[in-house]
Amino acid sequence: MAGKNVQAVGRRKTAVARVTLTPGKGEWAVNTRSLSEYFPRPTHQQRVEQPLREVELHDQFDVRVRVHGGGPTGQADAVRMGLARALVEHDEDLRSVMRSGGFLTRDSRKVERKKPGRPKARKRFQFSKR
């Protein structure tokens, strides 16, 4: 698969990230902006780069990402999963490393819907005994 573009999709909550890996020097473009510009928090940047750093390939690929929906943390986790899936598609031998790091496991938690007769999903209105 050398010299080829690899695409993968990652999801988290309502965020969806489409990740494209291209052989390069380690440049990032998230919605046409740099990684540090799009994710100003260092925790989000580290979380996004984790799969590449785990297999020490952070300077061998250029990463282009289109991400929409959700908030910053959901988007960062969606990009992380998409990146891990793209790396596995590039090299199947990385699957065990990605699996053990938890990068391929989809976090299925979503916001619980609001129920009728309640102010929020689980919260109750104040109870008055008298």
Topology of this protein?
Layout: E1 6-12, E2 15-23, E3 28-30, H1 35-38, H2 42-54, E4 61-68, H3 72-90, H4 95-101
Parallel strand pairs: 3-4
Antiparallel strand pairs: 1-2, 2-4
Helix pairs in contact: 2-3
Key features of this structure:
single chain; 130 residues; alpha+beta; Ribosomal Protein S5, domain 2; 4 helices; 4 strands; 33% helix; structural constituent of ribosome; Ribsml_uS5_D2-typ_fold_subgr; Ribosomal_uS9_bac/plastid; ribosomal protein
CATH topology term: Ribosomal Protein S5, domain 2
Outline the biggest β-sheet. Answer: 4 strands, mixed
Mean pLDDT figure: 94
- Regions with pLDDT < 50 over 5+ consecutive residues? none
- Radius of gyration equals 18 Å
Helicity level: 25-40%
Number of strands: 4
Q: What is the succession of H and E elements? A: EEEHHEHH
Describe it:
33% of the residues lie in helices and 21% in strands. The chain is of the alpha+beta class and 130 residues long. The protein has helices at 35-38, 42-54, 72-90, 95-101; strands at 6-12, 15-23, 28-30, 61-68. It has one domain: Ribosomal Protein S5, domain 2 (2-Layer Sandwich), CATH 3.30.230.10. It has 4 helices and 4 strands. Residues 99-130 are annotated as: Disordered. It comes from marine metagenome. Keywords: Ribonucleoprotein, Ribosomal protein.
